[in-house]
Amino acid sequence: MPDQDGYPTEEELQHIEKFPADGKMRELAEYVVNLWHWDDWAKLEGDKLELHTGGWSGNEMVVMALEKQTLFWAFYWQKSERGGHYHFSGIPL
């Protein structure tokens, strides 16, 4: 649950960074979507995940934590676009 200002807590960020690499990467993607501020700017459809930060620092913190989850980032990251847009695909259904 984000803090009173809507920012992810340190525990939530650590959960993303240290998420177990046991084949439950879809669970991680769902966790990120549920944590995202402005929930309509994070979409998980089929095997694709799109994250759009809107320039909000709380969302940027989530992306930085996700980057540290090297298994997820290495296997599913497709591209990042200027303006805080991140695209992932191949996430197991």
Give a description of the structure.
This protein has one domain. The protein is 41% helix and 20% strand. The chain has helices at residues 10-17, 25-35, 57-68, 70-76; strands at residues 42-45, 48-52, 77-81, 85-89. The protein has a four-stranded antiparallel beta sheet. The chain is globular. The model has no long low-confidence stretch (mean pLDDT 93).
Elements, N to C (H/E): HHEEHHEE
Uncertain spans: none
Q: Which range best describes the helical content: under 10%, 10-25%, 25-40%, 40-55%, 55-70% or over 70%?
A: 40-55%
Spatial strand arrangement across the major sheet: 1-2-4-3
Q: Supply Rg.
A: 12 Å
Please report the distance between the alpha carbons of the first and last residues. 25 Å
Number of domains: 1
Number of strands: 4
Number of helices: 4
Mean pLDDT, all residues? 93
Q: What assembly state would you assign to the polypeptide chains in this entry?
A: single chain
Largest sheet properties: 4 strands, antiparallel
Q: Choose one word for the global shape.
A: globular
Secondary-structure content class: alpha+beta
The fraction of residues assigned to DSSP E strands is 15-25%
